[in-house]
Amino acid sequence: MAMLEVTSLGISFGGLRAVDELSMKIEKGGLVGLIGPNGAGKTTAFNMLTGVYRPTDGGIRLDGQNLIGKKPHEICKLGVARTFQNIRLFSQLSVLDNVKTGLHNQITYSFAESMFHLGSYRKKEKQMDEKAMELLRVFDLDGVADYKAANLPYGKQRKLEIARALATNPKLLLLDEPAAGMNPNETEELMETIEIVRKRFGVTVLLIEHDMKLVSGICEYLYVLNFGRLLAEGTPKEVLSNPEVVKAYLGE
Amino acid sequence: MSFLNHLISGISLGSIYAIIALGYTMVYGIAKMLNFAHGDVIMVGGYMCFCATTYLGWPAWMGVVLAVIVCTALGVVIERLAYKPLRMAPSLAVLITAIGVSYFLQNAALLIWSSNPKTFTSVVTGEALSLFGGQMQISKVTLVAIAACLVIMVALMLFTGKSKVGTAMRAVSEDKGAAQLMGINVNTTISITFAIGSGLAAIAGVLLCSAYPTLMPTTGSLPGIKAFTAAVFGGIGSIPGAFIGGILLGIIEIFAKAYISTQLSDAIVFAVLIVVLLVKPDGLLGKHVSEKV
Amino acid sequence: MNKLKSYAASKRGRDTLLCFGIVIIAYIIVQAAIAGGGISSQIKGLLVPICAYVVMAISLNLTVGILGELSLGHAGFMSVGAFAGIVTTTCLADAIPLAPLRLAVAMVVAGLFAAIAGVIVGVPVLRLKGDYLAIVTLAFGEIIKNIVNVMYLGLDDAGLHFSLVNQNFQLGDGGKMIINGPIGVSGVTKLSTFTSGVVLILVTLFFVLNFVNSRTGRAVMAVRDNKIAADSIGISTSHYKLLAFVVSAAFAGMAGTLYAMNFSTVTAAKFDFNTSILVLVFVVLGGLGNIWGSIIAATLLTLLPELLRGLSNYRMLIYAILLIAMMLFNNSSFKVRLLEKRAMRQMEKAEKAGGKKEGA
């Protein structure tokens, strides 16, 4: 059985059908791309997968468990984490605290322990620090752990967002245009990091990307959206040679 | 018959709230700030008219004109000196500054006119309208307040909807930067908005003091808050919303006083506001803006 | 010792030490001044109110600075705490003869009542956003004031008697009215002292700083900085919003007891919209999220009208002008540029900083 099963997913905003009849199957450990032109409904699909929007119809199952109607924070607890197209960091918190916040449900202690700083407070905070630093090291961010997140340069902010998402220990990681605004060098570096992360944390990755060349480099399987509908799917090779896809991207 | 009497006085009070709320909503729409000094401009309007008629012996209409002129100028000056430098600042900074301006106006009034209440002579004279063989009395102030409120609302809707300046106002309220790029003078537009809002506050002040003739430096505070509530009630930024909110608030307040408890009337008004906002979080006629993810 | 040094070097540690340091040093100086007779009786009379306002400012900072929601009704919780405290001390007058202990118990009860009020207010209010939320907190503050204003509560051998709007109970022999409608409470036994006020500040600091520096506090700040992102990493935003709001209300309640137990008469009108605004001004001027800033702002601004007393009638006018001037300065292009430069410097440093860990 596939890890993520999306069946005939659709959503309407007023009269507008933003996504229609979207079906996807993602196997555990896969690295899958969701591509398509601007306004194709990619981010809307992510928003449905993470509970930000409630789909009008269709189903989403993660390891057989229904995700429809669950709140975003509940879906996260079930093992789906994400990043955002327009970076959403906790801008006033330090880089380290951003990741520690991601560990919120991984390393826990009670409200009373929060208020009194007694019991397992010290031990758990130390665990959090260590775990968070380990994640920051993966993304080469350990040197800026004490910086305010808002003061990081753009590329590092994107990486921090991925580190924070990974801190929630997800089975499925959704990356919304992780390379947006990066130069070619940074992009290549990021793609390598994603590859490393996937192997090291055993996480399944679904990523939205604009740049076809880029996704075809690392993704094993692609879904192409256009006008909210699935235009094509298959290996990068199959998809790139599909005339429909070429037409959607280049116009007629 | 007492029901109808209460209804009329509710609409009368509501009309005054609505005039203040209209000014509030205009200013909020464009400056996106809770202008807590608005209520104190009402008070200044009241004192201006009072001084003109009582000390200088001017006729009532000249007192009203003086109040409108002074308050309009005051509104523009306040905006230029206190709010304009903060246009890029966080909204909380502007809020506190507005509170500072409110303290300033109240204490300046306290120094000039002392805390002793002044008895305001109504600007509207003449016999009350008697209906149903004297069972129902409608005072002239009530009629003038209702008429003024209706005229002002229609005028404002036409002005913002049809005139060039009104269009500029809507543009600035939507997006200051884009409006500027379109060649709209943002500063002038904001000044005009404050001028209109404060001018309306002056009219409301005169009517308020005519209907409830005690004038003190703190006279404007509570009506200011209530009118703000009315604006939120109707959906802040919406002109018909401010009108409906004001009228409803006035009616609820008078009915609560008449049928439930005078002391709890404010609590009831605020409780209704809370219920309305829980059902319609953007007020009765407010636009819903959701965050894009 | 080394541990302490590294703690003091971290920003978090520095802020904590600064907060406690300010309070303790101020306490010692004031006590010395009182012993030396260097403090006027007017200022002496302000000591307990200052402590109460400091606690109010710290607790409101939790809502406005840490949670990031504007509250215009904080005095409502102070009111609940004030009257709950008065009733508790009156009821326990015989049971606990020791005054400081009675005050402490009253504060705990007051905190509980204010927390309950916080839940009642917070559940509906926190569903709203921005200015709508602000106006509803204002509305709740006024509602609380109005209800307390028509409350009648008396104590006799049969226990507590309670009614709203009109007093519709008769007290037995030796019975005593505690809350008497709009007249409020009179003949309060003054239990609050400067020392008890400082102890309350220290207790508040201990809990509020612990709260902020914990996973709970981080979750609350995450919700403040980006609600959608907080949701996406598994934080129940409504839960943490309410939690911060209720903790904030509880401490406001304790401040209410401290404040009320300093005056012989207390009325509901004291805890009105203007008091809420006053405390908000402390928080904004002290800096959002800056706890020691709140302490200093609350102290100085409570003292300011007293220090300006020589200017007699003009003092409140000058207070208003100072307030406007401070806000204008705080947001002047000069200061904004200074802050931007600092951020730019850190950004440049971050650009260069590699993966290597700096120091320990």
From TrEMBL, chain A:
SMART domains: AAA. One of its GO terms (cellular component) is plasma membrane. Residues 4-252 form the ABC transporter domain. GO terms for molecular function: ATP binding; ATP hydrolysis activity; L-isoleucine transmembrane transporter activity; L-phenylalanine transmembrane transporter activity; L-valine transmembrane transporter activity. InterPro entries: AAA+_ATPase, ABC_AA/LPS_Transport, ABC_transporter-like_ATP-bd, BCA_ABC_TP_C, P-loop_NTPase. One of its GO terms (biological process) is D-alanine transmembrane transport. Keywords: ATP-binding, Nucleotide-binding, Transport. SUPFAM superfamilies: P-loop containing nucleoside triphosphate hydrolases. Pfam families: ABC_tran, BCA_ABC_TP_C. Signal peptide: none annotated. Transmembrane segments: none annotated. This is ABC transporter ATP-binding protein. It comes from Agathobaculum butyriciproducens. The lineage of its organism: Bacteria, Bacillati, Bacillota, Clostridia, Eubacteriales.
